[in-house]
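4.2 Preliminary Data

To establish feasibility before requesting continued support, the project team ran the inverse folding procedure on a target of 280 residues. The structure was first converted into the token representation described in Section 3, and no sequence information of any kind was made available to the design step. The complete token record follows.
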């Protein structure tokens, strides 16, 4: 997510925020467009899912979702009553969790309402952590798909490991998987990708997806031909990185992705615990 978008969304959520009896609140009607919902009916469905999640967590819905009616002006000097809802931070958190995370405003909201601090830099850091976790999980999925394809074409688990290491060697300028683990001081029993920065994880994922596609399209069989294909794809990805001034083997290691997951999970749990505190 671009910094400009983060700044814009942060400002919108902050401007929409108000205090009600010393409790942070947001208007559902004001959140609707910020979260990217054009129609109230569609947003209301998400709110209903959030209410169910609230009830399932043992928290009273009425403590966090308060129905209100607004009077708005209509043409020719008329007035009309409009359904609205006062939402606590916890209610907004549940709404974000039940929204479409593919939408940038929803992804941002999941972090904004999960952290208790209202500092943009902390929110930015968490979004970057989540992006890295998602990239790592995506790479795992891509590697499982490739492994399945290769198994059907005569490559066993050991052969897949050899192919992956040769691919790493092409991507990292001559350093294979074992070499890179030594350079980055990765424990022997842990995957290299768990300590790579997001950019490198995505580079590996792209090369892996290319290999999966081309193995099928070219109907490749056996370890030698598939190894050549995977090396070519990683070399092509490395070329792109070098053209943009990035040497993947020189990038510093990132924090253990397992630790990042635990921290995110702890923050989410804290948000849930905050929600169980009944509004006074």
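Position-by-position output of the design step:
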């Amino acid at each position: 997510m671009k910094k400009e978008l983060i700044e814009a969304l942060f400002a919108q959520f902050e401007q929409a925020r108000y205090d009600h009896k010393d409790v942070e609140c947001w208007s559902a009607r004001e959140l609707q467009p910020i979260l990217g919902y054009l129609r109230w009916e569609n947003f209301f469905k998400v709110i209903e899912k959030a209410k169910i999640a609230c009830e399932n967590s043992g928290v009273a819905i009425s403590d966090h979702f308060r129905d209100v009616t607004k009077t708005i002006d209509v043409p020719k000097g008329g007035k009309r009553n409009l359904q609205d809802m006062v939402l606590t931070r916890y209610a907004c958190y549940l709404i974000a969790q039940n929204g479409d995370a593919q939408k940038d405003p929803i992804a941002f909201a999941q972090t904004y309402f999960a952290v208790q601090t209202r500092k943009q830099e902390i929110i930015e850091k968490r979004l970057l952590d989540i992006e890295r976790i998602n990239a790592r999980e995506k790479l795992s999925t891509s590697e499982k798909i490739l492994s399945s394809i290769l198994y059907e074409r005569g490559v066993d688990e050991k052969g897949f490991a050899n192919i992956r290491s040769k691919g790493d060697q092409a991507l990292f300028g001559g350093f294979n998987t074992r070499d890179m683990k030594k350079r980055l001081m990765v424990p022997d029993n842990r995957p290299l990708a768990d300590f790579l920065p997001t950019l490198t994880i995505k580079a590996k994922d792209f090369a892996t997806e290319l290999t999966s596609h081309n193995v099928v399209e070219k109907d490749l069989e056996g370890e030698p031909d598939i190894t050549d294909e995977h090396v070519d794809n990683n070399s092509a990805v490395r070329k792109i990185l070098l053209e943009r001034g990035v040497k993947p083997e020189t990038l510093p290691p990132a924090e253990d992705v397992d630790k990042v997951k635990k921290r995110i999970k702890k923050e989410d749990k804290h948000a849930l615990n905050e929600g169980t505190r009944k509004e006074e």
